[in-house]
Amino acid sequence: MCYNLVTRREELYYLGGDDMPETANNLSDGRHTFRELYQQRTALFCALCNLMPEISWKSKKHFDEVNDPMYEGDFLAGIDSPDGTIAFHVKLEYWDEFDIPEIDHAPYYDGYSSKDVLARTFSLAHQIEHPPCL
Questions:
Q1: What is the pLDDT of residue 7?
Q2: Which residues contact 129 (CB under 8 A, 6 or more apart)?
Q3: Tell me, what DSSP letter sits at residue 18?
Q4: What is the rounded CA–CA span in Å between residue 9 and residue 2?
Q5: 98, 90 Cβ separation under 8 angstroms
Q6: ∠ CA(53), CA(58), CA(59), 5° rounding?
Q7: What is the pLDDT of residues 39-85, one digit of tens each?
Q8: 15 has pLDDT over 50
Q9: Rounded CA gap, 74 and 84, in Å?
Q10: Which of 11, 76, 78, 120 sits at 20 to 30 Å (Cα–Cα) from 111?
Q11: Is residue 117 over pLDDT 50?
């Protein structure tokens, strides 16, 4: 089922057209739409960044703004984990929710993959200070 969903999404993407983003956002696995999953990812990443502000950042510009301009209506939020940077494009409407330092340009993209993002994110799981149980 997931394979068909990905194939459908890629077909929609390659078809292009003005209605593609709305159509892709409403694709569902029967439980969640892409829109819902992206909103949840944004909220979870925001919480993680705000828990670790000393290694987190946000920027309205890519590293190379001339050859790689920022997507309209987006900014980058990131965390510099010990294993490398984790960054996501986030809609500007969430800018104030990310209570982290603003930097002029995002760090250079090191070519990391989705698999790298998972490994880098899981590496942070043991670095967060847990308050004692009451």
A1: 43
A2: none
A3: T
A4: 11
A5: yes
A6: 155
A7: 999 999 999 999 999 999 999 998 887 677 778 899 999 999 999 99
A8: no
A9: 22
A10: 11
A11: yes
Domain that holds residue 120: 33-124
Please choose, from the candidates 130, 34, 35, 128, the residue with its C-alpha nearest in 3D space to the C-alpha of residue 79: 128
Give domain status of residue 53, yes or no.
yes
- In the chain, pLDDT over 90 holds for what percent of residues? 50
Q: Would residue 103 count as lying in a domain? A: yes
- Which strands, in side-by-side order, build the sheet including 56-59? 56-59, 74-81, 84-91
Cα distance between residue 78 and residue 89, in whole Å: 9
Contact 24, 9 (CB under 8 A): yes
User: pTM score, two decimals?
Assistant: 0.74
pLDDT of residue 3: 38
**Is 17 within a domain?**
no
Amino acid identity for residue 80 in this structure: D
The rounded distance, in Å, linking the Cα atoms of 107 and 57 is 10
* 71 is a domain residue: yes
Work out how many domains the chain is built from and give that number. 1
